[in-house]
Protein 1
Amino acid sequence: MSKGEIVLGALAPHPPHVVYAENPDQNEPVSEGGWETLRWGYHRLARKLETIDYDVMVVFTPHWQTYVGTHFLGVPGFSSKSVDPVFPNIFRYNYDLEVDVDLSEAMCKAASDAGLITRMMRNPDFRVDYGTITSCHMMNPRWDKPIITISSNRNTHYYSPEVMIEQALALGKACRTAIEESGKKVVLVSSHSLSHRHFVTESPLPEDMSKEHIYNHSQYVWDMALIDLFRQGKMREAIDIMPEFTEQTIAETEGGGLVWMMGAMGMPDYPAEIYGYQSVIGTGNCIAAWVPQSDKREIVL
Amino acid sequence: MDHDIIQFGLYVPPHPHPLLSPGASEGYQRLRDAFDTCRERIENSDADLIIVYSTTWPSIIGHQFQANPNSEWVHVDDDFHYLGSMPYSFTMDSVFAEACVEKAQERGLQARTVNYDAFPIDTGSITALSLLNPDNRIPATIVSSNMYANRSETIVLGKAIRDALTEEKRKAVVVVVSSLSNRMFTEPIDPSEDRIHSQKDDDWNRKILEFFEDGRLEDLSQLSREIHGQIRVQKVVAYKPAWWMASIMGQHNNYDGEVLAYEALNGSGGAVIQLTPSAGSIGDKEFDEDDVEYYRGDRNVLDQGGV
Ligand SMILES: [Fe+2]
């Protein structure tokens, strides 16, 4: 068996608004569109993924929040309806997905061997979180590959951003070990926004783009500072400023997704592919991808 | 003031153990027994409505009220999924939920009802309603906890729901779903060895329970920021349950308080507490700040204290 590898890692924000705007059959509410800059970026990334050979998508989500360790999906398939508790008016999505339980178990074990607290999630009634569903739908709307979801352990709140970073890096390294031993080709997905201050009101038409803008200029400047480091391939520096970025913009990076992915990918020192940046209900969202194989890497935007 | 509109208030923990695994420890069983006692007390009261304020249902777009007349699904907790599934079927009072939205908007709040098939009702609300009102004998509504709301917004929310109760001439039991100290153990524990995470958390919890037992709800409301700093993991901007509970029940200290149980739930402070509005004890308790409607000069706390 050849050595498994990570073929691409994506920062894939999951505001349910982008799925709502797409009007897929699976989602009940109907929209007039909206947030095209993000959606077109996702379409571009989805087209690229169709040219890449991979076996499974591994998603780290901040919307499966666990306090007692890190949990991994451990049921072969889930079929249910996901209703967003915060935006139920725009996201009621019927899903039917497959899980790569073998790799999930292997990552869980590797993380446990590395000293992290872990648990497999074996309850078939469990509802997969809307972050996972949104990111996966936008990256692979055909849902023809199995997925794995990893929960986000709430270290930032329980301890500090620094503790979160230590643990997320260790988790990433453990996942990489398991992936390499599995022989599989894997796409990693860090499912979250950057700056994360929301408006607390909503337009009568949520997709009214004349009302959409970043919550404030400070959020925007911070987001751009981070994206600039992505472009330059300075991920060590990006992780170094993560505690301050997270605090200043109450960023969704607090869950640890991007840090986990960078840990798994060995802290890339090459430029990220940038697919788009747009605000959604005030939050800052960037789609970016890191591609280890240099001949597959592009300048997108 | 018409005390009948609030029959009594309950403060209960959000974790599912009393529902799913009461036999796993003596402490969980004591919490379960306390829930059962409260269920009987609701049955023996004149309440025709249960209003749940759940700290495990966060919202962003203002304040959401559950209004699906038959809220049905099978829920699984994010952390404690191995304890089992939580099927539920709750009767919600959609008319009252609409009234709450109207009153909240009149008081300047952003609010809406939610009425969607398969809406994911949170662990805390499911645990509370399953144990307190198992046969849907009376309808309920659940109100979310806005993640950005601070004191004034939370207090106005409580007042708005009270407005709706008054106008609709309802008699309610209000249920706050929240831990006291909320730091859990981050490693698996044997339930029989569950204990409060730290001595400090336990000390503070017991001080809060003293206040509850003395009926000093407004004092707890005034202490909310201190409680948040001392024993709450900083997940949200503030410790809001006492603000909401005081504002809906009445911002004073004239309650009969009873702590039915206090136990650890994976390290967090879980208590079942009842507060009943009382006509007595006016003047023997002090609180720091009035809720002023008309300025009559500085207040002498020894002379006042009533509603
Ligand atoms: Fe999110």
Protein 2
Amino acid sequence: MSAAALSPSFKTAFDANSQVFSLAGVIRPRSIDEIADSITMLKHAIDDVRGVLYLDVKRLIQMNNTAFHAFVRVALDACRARSDLRVVIVTSSVVGWTTRMFGHLNEIEPQITVEVYDSTFYPGQSFLEDTSFIPILRTQTKMTWRHERSILQRHGLRPGIAMADVCCGIGDFAVLVQKEFQPARIVALDHSKASLAYAREVAANFGITDIEYTYGDASEMLLEDNQFDFVSCRHSLQIFNERELLLKELYRICKPGGRVYITNEKNSHCLGEPRAQSIQWTYNEVAKLFSHFDMDVELGPKSRRYLAEAGFDDILVESFMVTNLDGDPQDFADVITAWENVYAGEMAVRRGDPPEFIERFRQGFRDHIFAALHPKGYAGWPIWVASGRKPT
Amino acid sequence: MIVANNGPAEAAFEPLLQLEMEMGTFISEWQHCDHLSSYLARIISHNRTDPVRHSNFFSSALNELLEVSFRSGASSGQVVLAIFRHGPVEQIKITFPCAAEQIPFYREAVSKVDRSDARARYLDSISTDMAPSRDSILLDLAINFDASIRFEEGPSPAVTLVVDLPLEGLVS
Ligand SMILES: C[S@@+](CC[C@H](N)C(=O)[O-])C[C@H]1O[C@@H](n2cnc3c(N)ncnc32)[C@H](O)[C@@H]1O
């Protein structure tokens, strides 16, 4: 069974299979009567539940004391009446007050516990929120910007607009966009506190004060609907296991008529000369390694399908190749070194690969570096850029 | 409704905005509490370290204060809201008309926030009350938002609540 009660600002739903009752949106009633249906629904849900009821408040953006007391009352009464019942309240680390408010309940009633869901949600999270990723992101953005700065206008970026950069990493892209395109508003969101701290420092050093860096979960953003003319999400759709959920969020915060812009890789198409075969072998393995962790670094050419299925129209797709000839070949080499460290040094080890495999895996990266630095060599890293318009 | 940039200055607290509204207009629509708190929170949070989350936190606290004013029972006079900043702290100063015999209850509620049994009383209120009392709303602000709260009595029958919210530190 699944049921939902709707009001303009909030939503309650119960999924009997997973025993999850969720409260989402803004719940600020004047009196309990206004939420009577939802309260009744919660009571019925509890009657249905055996064992654990999950009360999911991770998308709860606002709740006043009137509603808090009313919902909590139901949970407390149920626990008092049924010693077999456990209630797990699932909060998010992003909405700080929910964890604080609901956190008290365990002191009142030990059958109620609180779990902060997003600390262990994504398979690739531990690699990607690690600070060792910071130098890679920095140089990567410098190299991709040479291409993207002229591409972005075709995808709708222009002065004076409101934009969001979702999964902004260390925020370089937001700084570059701010300088080049002067949007009226930039919100830059990421789930790595270390990257955001770094981003704020970089912006401050450039004297940039008007980028709104915010800690958040891209699949559960606090940002309101229909707010941005341009929503970018770079190199990140490919690392999410729940891609549809992320696209839905990007769609939601985009204004009708606005565009969502995504960039992704197809790692198996990284190339180099000389030593092409060794390089190709390694990047094929990179793709397999990521898919072991539920990430798809082959996503680039699938962007068109993802955008279409998410409901966008007027979809534009193009690709460009970052090469060792773009700027300083050493930058290219540095990025590959960083990839080698994380992919071979951390991820392959975590997967439990034998030393012989890891050695061969590393060799392809070294050969890619060799090609990049060779006076007659050529090394490339292809990127797919795609954007779609949210229908009006 | 008047939105002005220069509210009455207070030692070290820099005024961010002030808003005055006829009580009759304010209480004509419950949604005003939600709309005003969301809107004002976004304005004052834009230059905080994490504007989106600061605004979400601030809106929660401000909404409760607006709801308390809304429920004061007065239908004439003015509700005056001023927001100040000092370092990591925002101060909300809200004045609303209220019947003279009600005033001691507000004073009492504020004085109880500082007592050592505040936490116990807050938990007790969650665990037993059907609807939140004035007391438990102020306790919520003190306990969940680390607010410190002061009471001032107005010249005409009115109540002023001065609430310091150190949200910048809480959010980031
Ligand atoms: C491959 S990096 C891309 C960063 C940046 N867009 C760039 O191009 O340099 C992926 C980013 O996604 C962030 N991320 C991962 N899961 C996230 C989530 N659930 N919500 C927000 N950001 C997330 C990581 O912290 C990381 O900064």
Protein 3
Amino acid sequence: MLLSQLPVGKTGEVVAITCSGLVRRRLLDLGLVPGTKIRTLRQSPGGDPLAFNIRGAVIALRLDTASHVKIRSLD
Amino acid sequence: MKGQPLQPLLRFGIEDADSPVVALAGNPNTGKTTIFNALTGLNQHTGNWPGKTVVQARGKYCYGGQEVILVDLPGTYSLLANSVEEQIARDFIYFGRPDATIVVADATCLERNLNLLLQVVEITPLVILCINLIDEARRKLIKIDFARLAERLGIPVVPASARTGEGLELLKKTVQDMISGKLKPSPKPIIYDGEVEGALHQILPEIKGILGDDATSRWLALRLLEGDETVLEGIQHYLLTDPPARLEEVFV
Ligand SMILES: Nc1nc2c(ncn2[C@@H]2O[C@H](COP(=O)(O)OP(=O)(O)O)[C@@H](O)[C@H]2O)c(=O)[nH]1
Ligand SMILES: [Mg+2]
């Protein structure tokens, strides 16, 4: 599944980053390397962006950015 | 490139650069501002980064009779100039040539902080890793082998708890030793795979020919390989009055 589809309160694990270039690099810099656990914390009123816990920091990602992250669900 | 008539620090709004300049970098919420306040006290000044709407805080402190100018950089996860904040932090560390850069890391999630540290170390060896919030780490029963980390990274590591002031004396002393040249870090270079190293090998002589045989040419070459145009803007703005056309040719 995609990170953009991970429901609030659920945890997943990064499988792959499916884009290239600067967006890929930015996602990696935020700590989203394969194997990283990630949890959806909340969703803003409009549904976009989503807030995640990534390696101990709260980070907001837009849905289209989060859709470049392939994950597997851990719950 | 220090000592050239062109003074990059002036372009960052820093005029009294006779004293050594030390930058505070790190992820957001690692305690940079707390450390900045603890070291400088009321001796600080806030304005904007020239031409930007981002706040610049700088201050002074004295240690062992030496005045030090401290600059609190915007908190970032990366130095790839994805945002104004990242560009300011990166430009300051690369073009501003601070005499030392303190990377402040959160002891409770150290791993995530080390990515930025490696990016800074790739720019300059004059780096001190300050592992802050060790009180929180203790509470969470997180144990960190500071000596081993220092040895593996090849730079000094200072544990601290900025809220209580623990470790800040050692931080000032470490900064002093770096400024005076007593402490010469030798971080391990980051070696990329053959394809990248090969490409670097091809363009490095060209870059060194333009900018002088400079240890930081490697970092610049990496950015040019990545196709990072903001770095060209930086060169134009901070280093050259009249940028040679050849640099554009190296740009791929
Ligand atoms: N427990 C603890 N909290 C700290 C420490 N240093 C900073 N903080 C707190 O962490 C939060 C973020 O600090 P701040 O200096 O604003 O971080 P910055 O974003 O890196 O500038 C604030 O609430 C600080 O009071 C520390 O050593 N221990
Ligand atoms: Mg701050």
Protein 4
Amino acid sequence: MDFDPYPDNRVVGTARVPSGPQRTAPPVPVKIIVAGGFGVGKTTTVGAISEISPLTTEAEMTMEGVGVDDPGQASSKTTTTIAMDFGCVTIDHTLKLYLFGTPGQTRFAFMWDDLVRGALGALVVVDTTRIDDCYPAVDYFERAGLPFVVGVNTFNGQLGYNLDEVRWALAVRDDVPIVQFDARFRGSVRDALLVVLDQALDKAMKMRS
Amino acid sequence: MRHPADPDDPEHPAAPGVRPYLRNTGPGVRYQPEPPPAPSPGPPPGSSGPPPGEQTTSLRPFVLTSGRVDGLDPNIGLETQVSSHPGALSARLSPEQRAIVHLCGEPLSVAEISARLRLHLGVTRILVGDLRAAGHLDVHVLENDFPDPETIMRVIRGLRSIS
Ligand SMILES: Nc1nc2c(ncn2[C@@H]2O[C@H](COP(=O)(O)OP(=O)(O)OP(=O)(O)O)[C@@H](O)[C@H]2O)c(=O)[nH]1
Ligand SMILES: [Mg+2]
């Protein structure tokens, strides 16, 4: 087995840096998606861990009506502009973690293809008083084969339901971790992201073997 | 507990697309999002006019990119690092292109360029692609689609050291 879990002095050379006079080599960027319904704490999550205060950008997303009201209908696709916020954590000068907070919307599935390309995984933020707001995100990440973790944001320390009930309502596979966290606290967000990274590491190891 | 968490329950199998679309309307609810607009039959993609309610942000982009909306390089992602060539500022550039070149003396992600210049992300990607084609920018494309275990381990150790 050639996997060394502590490659301390190794420089990751996956960025194709053009040769030329010495210029600052860019860090290798990796990203985690923070998804969920409106107002569940995505921006709070990103801001709690980011070393910069969250920046916002606007992006086009394709939306697919999932036909809840009219199940017989073919799905309709529309394009809409959404605001996405993001932050970053510099691991060292050769590696930088980006966090992208992106909305989902009940009854509509966003197509996050551009966003998800190359992502390590996703944290799906859930408010237990309206669990179904995160269904589009869960559906999407399942289909995309992206490692994801459900993070139940404990507003005011209150968890409306126990985690088993949340798992039932979400109908996610047993190997999808469901964790409880508080979006306002860095340590709590860090721990939730570490669970996402564990999932990502599993996937990377499977891809290698 | 209201429901048994039974993954084999045929009513609620653990498979994509079959989530029970329930909405909690119990007393604990403190927020009801507005229902999203119904999917309108038109206009289809590519026809004139942005979807209703999106006018403000959709007009300017197409001016800046001379009407080009497709041909986006999928390798130019949100986190992709961009750096400008030293001589690029002396080239004839549009104000937006010049601003990008100016900003990227040090490597910067596409998302940061977009946010700092308040340019729509799609527009930023197109302008970055054009600047690269003209030889004014380097776009640092990653070779792997998914990071390798060593990289992920480094992120894990980096995050663990945050307190
Ligand atoms: N008490 C408490 N408040 C929280 C918590 N997380 C978020 N909030 C608050 O809830 C509100 C919404 O949080 P945001 O982080 O803006 O949520 P969001 O998902 O980014 O919202 P949108 O971008 O509008 O969809 C803010 O006023 C936060 O301060 C939490 O864990 N506890
Ligand atoms: Mg937000």
